[in-house]
Design a protein that fits this description.
Elements: E1 4-7, H1 13-24, H2 31-34, E2 43-48, E3 51-65, E4 68-80, H3 89-99
Antiparallel strand pairs: 1-2, 2-3, 3-4
């Protein structure tokens, strides 16, 4: 099955916490379940069927240039399941994020 890139489903926060543990090699980040720091609509997710296999999010903010505020974004939460690494999935998610 082809991996689909789409908006993160808010019902998949449990899978997102698991993805964080697999991606960063630490304990499962329960804070994802308690307080989602980035709204799901500002995140791009990769799904292999119903399985969440990747995630990229953006922190939206403004910078001042030439005396005026300019919208900017910071990349956050880049995660890919170990079995999907090397497939170009992170690049596909980043491309989808810049199109959003």
């Amino acid at each position: 099955m082809a991996v689909e890139i789409r908006t993160l489903d808010p019902d998949d926060l449990d899978q997102l916490a698991d993805l964080g543990a697999h991606s960063f090699g630490g304990p499962r980040p329960e804070m994802v379940l308690e307080q989602r720091p980035i709204p799901p609509e500002e995140a791009v997710a990769a799904y292999d069927g119903d399985r969440l296999v990747g995630h990229v999010a953006a922190h939206r903010f403004r910078q001042w240039f030439g005396g005026r505020a300019v919208p900017c974004g910071g990349v956050a939460g880049v995660m890919v399941m170990p079995d999907q690494r090397g497939s170009g999935l992170a690049a596909r998610m980043m491309a989808a994020m810049t199109e959003a």
